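Dissemination and training. As part of the outreach component of the grant, students in the summer workshop were shown how a complex can be specified as a set of sequence lines and then modelled as a single object. The example used during the hands-on session is reproduced here so that future cohorts can follow it. Participants entered these lines:
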Amino acid sequence: MNARRRADLPHELVFLPLGGTGEIGMNCCCYGAGPADDRHWLMVDLGVKFGEETDPGIDVVLPDVSYIAAEKSRLVGLVLTHAHEDHLGAVAWLWPQLQCPIYCTPFAAQILALKLKEAGLDEQVPVKTMAVGARFTLGPFALEFVAVTHSIPEPTALLIETRQGRVLHSGDWKIDRTPVLGQGMDEKRLRDIGAKGVDVLVCDSTNVLREGHSPSEADVARRITDIVRQAEGRVAITTFASHVDRIVTAIRAARATGREVVIAGRAMRNTIEAARACGMLLDSGRLLDEEEFGYLPPGKVMLLCTGSQGEPRAAIARIAEDIHPHVSLEPGDLVIFSSKTIPGNEKEVGRVLNNLARLDIDMVTGDDDLVHSSGHPRQGELALLYDWVKPRALIPMHGEPRHLRAHRKFAQARGIDDVAIPRDGHILRLCPGPLAEIDEAPCGRLHVDGRLIVPGEDGPARQRRRLSFSGIVFVSVVMNQRGDLAADIEVMSDGLPMGLEGELAAAAEQALGAMPKPRRKDREALAETIRTAVRRAADGLWGKKPIVKVAIVDV
Amino acid sequence: MNARRRADLPHELVFLPLGGTGEIGMNCCCYGAGPADDRHWLMVDLGVKFGEETDPGIDVVLPDVSYIAAEKSRLVGLVLTHAHEDHLGAVAWLWPQLQCPIYCTPFAAQILALKLKEAGLDEQVPVKTMAVGARFTLGPFALEFVAVTHSIPEPTALLIETRQGRVLHSGDWKIDRTPVLGQGMDEKRLRDIGAKGVDVLVCDSTNVLREGHSPSEADVARRITDIVRQAEGRVAITTFASHVDRIVTAIRAARATGREVVIAGRAMRNTIEAARACGMLLDSGRLLDEEEFGYLPPGKVMLLCTGSQGEPRAAIARIAEDIHPHVSLEPGDLVIFSSKTIPGNEKEVGRVLNNLARLDIDMVTGDDDLVHSSGHPRQGELALLYDWVKPRALIPMHGEPRHLRAHRKFAQARGIDDVAIPRDGHILRLCPGPLAEIDEAPCGRLHVDGRLIVPGEDGPARQRRRLSFSGIVFVSVVMNQRGDLAADIEVMSDGLPMGLEGELAAAAEQALGAMPKPRRKDREALAETIRTAVRRAADGLWGKKPIVKVAIVDV
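and obtained this result:
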């Protein structure tokens, strides 16, 4: 590229989101510094999004980073703000395309190492562990991990300084002045950064529709302890597997009330291991295995388990269906959902709550009591951050379109006039200001399908979705040299009401019979004629047109 | 049956729910009077439930009423408490099995007539229209429609009296002392009924988790009028198509603020027509058609439309996607969601809200302001009804399992000790008391698939769900008399990643080749061998095992 460089292009700092603008999850954005024909790129976060029912058979969705991968020699690194799946879950899938060094704090490095090991990449990927508060330089980017508070250990905002300007990329955050673990939000540093001037704040919008301030983890800890203290039977607490603060809270509540702690769920065990490797959870005592649950008296046990989002294979879902191999609850036992239901998971969570109700088990959720606090800022917290950082311009991130739009309105009402709602694949110039969309880059989403990465927009999941509405019919037609049927037409279907195959075969035969022999030589026309006849027959019998595939075999 | 009657069996009043216990929708219960071998049945409500994503391609789910249909000579009638889909939507589908007279109030009769006409049944079905408050006798059942309040015109509770005892079947209700339309809840009659003694109250549980009293329609009307008054651009209000009170509120708000009213959505037009046929909405003035929307100045128009549950083909969804043929909104226009999101519809509603946000349109929902009030009783209202009716026993209905369980707890805390949570297909003896499960009847659910009614539990939707996870492969194998391939093996697939078919065909050929010729004569064994080989090959290449179907054709 240098060869083609035009010396007169201005130096700019640009922002290119490749995922996570206007949807939940799959966070990935790139910052580019330099002239348009000689940019260096920095990638911030590389997360997954979980598959939705509109993409059947897909558990994991990845951002398409091929635009940056094509320029990977100019990618100076990938920085991870924290260890949540929607910020680092895609690394093990996509690093082979990017081949760049990765920078993150110790806890994220622990979580990432596990994933890289599972993918067989642990020997290859250069992961540089940096302390919270660390400053480091990658190509034209001077960076700093600034401590914030969130629902996972070591959450950071990223200060990005280039010759062209300064950006604070908030990551996911809230203001919690009494967190259970960690040093808390570095308000002093944020004020200092603000005093020096911030061009653009790229900011979490998740809870912008909520007024006031989020409750602190300490408030949640008090309520959970009270509730556990009053419980007479077994207590199970389910929360996000990565929420170490909440895990500590639950363990402390158990210790305070004389209960042993049993852990169920692999993801939670992994988190605990990662936390301990980083010096957390060291005073939590012995945590028991699922197998030990049944031997403990009801009033002496607390189960800490996964499944707060209704994941059907997670521990609490199986307990609620009474099919867990080691844990069962009885009428009068208590389950605390120390979590909120992420939008889109309502049905799944409802299913678990209903199954627990069928077993006559008591429940407390975040709707009933203060057993959860979100890790994202409400309006009061946003206003405080604006006040500390005093950004000239703002890019609302992390939220659905209605949140991004509400965030724009909120920021503008507080005097930040220059607000641009980002869109995946749209390159925004940040500095020199004002914010302006200057270019587009290809982007999109990929599906992890089985163990393959396939296109997300028009891949196999979309085909399967069509199959799921109206099923499929296969027609085998064996023809001889004379243009006659060499055997009966064979019809096989799946996903249709019983008993239609005979009539569909008859329709195929009739269509063939009505076709003059010379025309049958055109095998494509023959197949299309039969296909159309079978679809029409299905529509007449059933009222739906299935997918029809016709194989013409010559003998 | 009389022939086999044993004279010594006791006379009982029993309750048999066939749908709607522990799920939302598909309400259908039966009351049986007489000795166990000589019961007469009364059916109350016959509603649909909407299909879920776990049943792809299914829009409508029906209760399986074959147990009652098999004794239809002993079915004295079907009584409909009100006109909501989940109470009468299955009549046009299932009446041919039941062939009984139907009793309902005038508004429900209007709504039903439309459905029967569409199904070509309007000439055959005997629908008896009864006034709210009417008393009538069907076989051993003396019945009375008691006026309640709810989110549709002419909602009723049903008083059921037999020689064995008295039951009040609440239907769906709330206590609204200032409804927009209708005579209001007949508190006096309910108190009188209570004074004479009620054995069992069969009661709505939908909002039992909420404390206090529901706001009145009058409160909602005031807020909506204020919001419309402040709006400067176009206003669209979406609500449940059948919510005539709310439609009246919206029209009055438009008239009060000098706006014309445009109606969009067939279901809402149908409701308005039915309401007018019953003497409602007569003073609402001219309601305009969609085509007229574009000609009116922004400040002079209100659109009243369907789609409050995010239905993708409804008016507001198409407006939000900017693909509606006649209506488009612009930045600064306002959409009021005068509705609540029914659990399970969150994603769909979210999609509409986000699309509106992308168009920069302002929104108000029931989460933001008092623009909706539920039609179901909160705890304060339940306590009042208990106080009026003073039931000896209670059966919680209309809710998910966690609501039914919470209702039991709530009722028991208020001195109603005898509470039984009903289950579809389980026959409860109501009188003589106490409540007791005495028998089971077959039940289940049916799917409307295309225009056929098919089994719900193990029908084509379940097959299609399997298809939607891992796709399908068809293999055509043409064999000659000598046991050799007469043509190349043909593989066609759908829902698999691209480019696997060649290798799957190779796996099929290899499996065939490895099979000794004499064994190939067993066509079933041959097909199974090929099927297994193809599945294994797909698993190796992709990591998933698709459905594989093999056609062996002999020439």
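Chain A has a mean pLDDT of 95. Students were then asked to discuss how this feature might be tested experimentally.
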